[in-house]
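Proteins fold reproducibly. Consider a sample protein:
=====
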Amino acid sequence: MQALVLTSFAAPMTIEHLPVPQPGPGQVLVRIAASGVNPLDTKIAAGTAPHARPRLPAILGIDVAGTVAALGDGVTTFHVGATVYGMAGGIGGIQGSLAEYGVFDAALLAPVPESLSLREAAALPLVFITAWEGLMDRARVQAGDTVLVHGGAGGVGHMAVQLAVAQGATVFATGSAASRDTIEALGARFIDYRTSTVDGYVAEHTGGAGFDIVYDTVGGATLDASFKAARLHGGHVVSCLGWGTFDLSALTARAASYSGVFTLLPLLSGQGHARHGAILREANKLVDAGKLRVRLDARRFGLRTAHDAHAAQMDGSARGKLVVDVAD
């Protein structure tokens, strides 16, 4: 098979011809059709993501969609020829999806809904699982909650907005003026982070009480701002980018709480794989109900031009999720 291999950090990946791997117990061999591109993929390639525990040489690509080509012993959830997708590799020494074939733990995968193309499916796993773990598993969003999503037009952000809306919450989302139409089309009320202050939008939209749930998908100073935006007496701040040192005094003064989301943990620890597969099956329900869609960048990339997809991810030109078409 052909695979795109990273042999040195901050260096170009190269096409190599490798043996097709064979599935072991509990695994499936997938003929890969598409590989989703996430900011984390580019950070791993640059050598700036030690938390992903990369090991060289590496085949990157965390998100995958394709067709089951063979089953390992004990796999009964899929059949040969089934289309599947998942957040299944590309970190911690596990082969990723920038290859024509890959062996993945069946528990991490879910069937692709009929209404999704394989390209769309490849763009969904990491961002949806991250949104779900923050809003459902940590904050337990429910109907009637007021939810603020920072970065509402981004990868995780546009999933979090749709998920909160689907649960019956009243949703607000920050973004730039250019993202207003996207955010409002997803069902959220737009807040321009460049022209609004935390005190200003908390006063305008919550009467000064704060939001029940704040999901930070940006990190840094935005997480500090999130602590000031949480509801008095029981607000909940969630972040998927809580790396660094932060002052919790604003959070404490509001008697609010904080939860971190580390979506990579099941892959790195080997524990909790089935939970990720189950979350993707919840995504399928929302897709089938017309309550969830994934925004794709219109540009097309293949294995030999995957570096261009990484460049587009890093330069901010992407308008939706980027996907590499592995199968011609």
About this structure: The chain has a mean pLDDT of 97.
